[in-house]
Amino acid sequence: MAAQLDYHTIREIFSRFQAVEPEPKGELDHVNVYTLLVAVALSAQATDVGVNRATKDLFRIADTPEKMLALGEEGLIEHIKTIGLFRNKAKNVIKMAQILVDDYAGQVPNSRAALESLPGVGRKTANVVLNMGWHYPAQAVDTHIFRIGNRTGICPGKDVVAVERAIEDNIPVDFQHHAHHWLILHGRYICKARKPLCSACLIRDLCPYEEKSL
Fold it and tell me: Which residues are the active-site residues?
């Protein structure tokens, strides 16, 4: 685990990220907050590309909890059977739709606790929805961010909650909203787990990682 970077270094890192990609976007396709919630729940142990392929037709016919209930579990399975753990995910999505209809008038709640109470929704999923759906600077820590945070010292921590707190505590407020998107994209395409592309990294001169592949 690298030591926590100082304020000025972190500000320079995110200034560079911002200069290259001012408005980073999540890579899961969705048409509203509800379909975002479903897409993120389906993405567990699956690729964004695979989820997008499965939901392309699904979200045309089931873009609300009511329409998802009308489609039913078996109908949903037909759309998502190419995704890992599709049966359990279908069961959770239908249960989630029923709770949203019964308890939230068909609307997606916008508190972390309420989101985490839904079937198949954990802290990371809740934070993605709060950030992308409600424009709240919640930090969704996935394996990419956990790796980068500890490898570079941007946001080190022993677990995902500690890394999430390190982001909130150390990254300047003006970068908070897009912070997790910049970090995810950097980890997905540059700072990879096995073979990081250090020669193409725009923050390599600020990164303390000792095993750079230059």
Answer: 124, 142
